[in-house]
Design goal:
The protein is α+β, with helices and mostly antiparallel strands. It has two helices and four strands. The protein has a four-stranded antiparallel sheet with strand order 2-1-3-4, with no helix packed on it.
């Protein structure tokens, strides 16, 4: 799916065929997240120190907590619930990247920090 054109897909298709999600890279936790504007914090991605994308934390559903609330409500209707220490991915603010072997991918969120991935294969 390296040449996927998401702009032609509707939201249902994107969710139903989330084939791009091969994993998630987590940065360190931030105890100071309440001071960050989680709707408008700028997100950036670099591959091998070249800018490869920019967005904002509210790009997926307007605010990351909207995604968490949607998921919590869906699970609740099904007799389940979010549990402490679960990791919830709240949506993408930058289009999916497909690193090649030996690429270094860096992702940063203003006010929250950054995570780096060194692709080995």
């Amino acid at each position: 799916m390296a040449n996927a054109d998401y702009k032609t897909l509707d939201a249902f298709t994107l969710v139903a065929q989330n084939t791009w999600n091969g994993g998630v890279v987590l940065g360190t936790s931030s105890g100071d997240w309440r001071r960050v504007d989680l709707e408008n914090a700028v997100t950036r991605c670099w591959i091998n120190d070249r800018p490869e994308g920019q967005g904002k934390t509210g790009d997926a559903m307007g605010h990351p907590f909207e995604a968490v609330a949607w998921l919590a409500n869906l699970l609740n209707r099904r007799g389940r619930r979010l549990e402490r220490d679960m990791i919830v991915m709240t949506g993408s603010s930058i289009t999916t990247k497909f690193p090649a072997p030996r690429d270094r991918v860096r992702f940063a969120i203003d006010g929250l920090g950054e995570a780096t991935l060194d692709a080995s294969r």
